Amino acid sequence: MLLFLGIGVLPHTGWYRVETVLSGSMRPAFAPGDVIIVTPEPLREVRAGQVISYHIPIGDQHVQTHRIVKVLRGGEHPVVQTKGDANDSIDPWKARLDGTTAWQVRAVAPNLGWLIVWLRTPTIRNLTVFGAPLLLAVLGLWRIWRDPEEEIRDVAPVA
Fold first, then answer.
1. Which of 11-15, 31-35, 116-120, 149-153 reaches the highest mean pLDDT?
2. What pTM did the predictor assign?
3. Among positive and negative, which fits the CA dihedral 108, 109, 110, 116?
């Protein structure tokens, strides 16, 4: 119950977030399948060396967690350059941090997120998106089309 409360409910308070690591770009700090806990940090206080989670400014703008290697502009909306610890070069963009807070990594729970990584595989995703509804439809049709006399015999007491 406490695990459900800590992972599922309390992050909605804004005190922290729980994220699952999907790539190895930050090895050895954390690896795929680890869970990281990030807390809000005022944007004015971001500095080089911090590991933050942010939306990348290109493509699908997914959340990425990398180390700040350089703060190009401070202030209310800092612009930073980031790099994964396991990567050879810095990220090919300059990220402008918007909002009021950045999300700084505070703790790592090794291997706690492998279930999430497994659920995101294409095979499992297709099974849940297509297989589960198909199974429910088949079960529903079976209940509709089965012989009503059979149901009466199953429920009626034997004399």
1. 31-35
2. 0.73
3. negative
